[in-house]
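User: I'm putting together notes for a lab meeting next week and I want to include a structural view of one of the chains we've been expressing. I don't have a solved structure, so I'd like a prediction I can at least talk through. The sequence is below, exactly as it appears in our construct file.
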Amino acid sequence: MRLSRAFIPILKETPKEAEIVSHRLMLRAGMIRQQAAGIYSWLPLGMTVLQKIAQIVREEQNRAGAQEILMPTIQPSDLWRESGRYDAYGPEMLRIMDRHEREMLYGPTNEEMVTDIFRSHVRSYRALPMNLYHIQWKFRDEVRPRFGVMRGREFLMKDAYSFDLDQEAARKAYQRMFVAYLRTFARLGLTAIPMRADTGPIGGDLSHEFIILASTGESEVFCHADILNTPVPGADTDFMGDLSPIVDAWTALYAATDEMHDEAAFNAIPDDKQMTARGIEVGHIFYFGTKYSEPMGAKVAGLDGVERPVHMGSYGIGVSRLVGAVIEACHDEAGIVWPDSIAPFDVAIINLKAGDPTTDAMVERLEAQFEAAGKSVLVDDTDQRPGGKFAAMDLIGIPWQVIVGPRGAADGNVEVKRRATGARETLPETGAFAYVTETVTK
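Assistant: Thanks for the context. Below is the predicted structure for the 442-residue chain, given as structure tokens.
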């Protein structure tokens, strides 16, 4: 992609409405545009990151045995009346009347709808365990939307819903999602700490929030420092096996947000292991038993032939929120520092003298080499001054910058910069290609 043709509307000044780092940088880097309070258009750069995050989430859900569906954004109110949540949910729910005067709503979550889908098709325990998920837009009419995509009214979420015969099987489903979440966030370049959480309006008696540490986080968190060294399960994890040792390893150490903090339990931790920090919630999982299946008649026949309400859980990841959360955790004074796995481009090639035959030819060769190796490339072929080019690429946060100038090109050399560390090396053209591609592969 050539920057001269890319739609990346970079802003030199920070819009006054941007209160936190991620909001400022997303607006300045041309990733989003606000259309109304808490509602954003996603521009090409932001959309690319959003899709990469969604794909990693999708791959880990599939690996854990969940099956993807797609439910509509607009839901009939009758389903919510069945569960008893229509009036209880509160003003965050956007209620709608269609032209036939039927009460509808813009879904803030999908427990009722997925329960209706399940009860319409499943009658026997032989179909269990089952986990259905989708990645879909939600709407919650926040009284004070702020912080950009971190607390918007419209947001993209992955929500999964498990169905099991009894409590024991349902808790195993919960453990599968617990482990899948650890893997998901690790692949996004994040360390997410599972913390015991309040179940809120979703209901149930077992819940964990997954929190990433960031100085600008909305919550104060308290934990045992050793939890940061707990190993994340590998790609060879057997999701149908016994996952309790992995879950126990993470939950045995104290970790809580300010809402669930137990001062006495925290004080029992050795002083040198007590850690307090700020954190951002990026995922939330719940087990709620028969809260929805019982009132909505979602039953299956067991081995004895008796029909019983299924036990359920729900599991959310804020996909659009994660874009902002990653930036909150991964930035410096110059701009965004994307983890390799979700960067909008793998490599930025900066042509310091566009139009010069030598630099143009070297840029074209490097671009072709990287793309042939499966790496996405953004070429700055504009006529900006070098300082402006460097500032723009630092702001966007592409992991690697390959800088091609007329003096170096005349000698067959380029400069390579690693965005995360700022380290620079002057290398021969072929050496630069090998160095970057081998490092990205690692």
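A couple of points you could mention at the meeting. The chain has a mean pLDDT of 94. The CA atoms of residues 245 and 251 lie 10 Å apart.

User: Perfect, that's what I needed.
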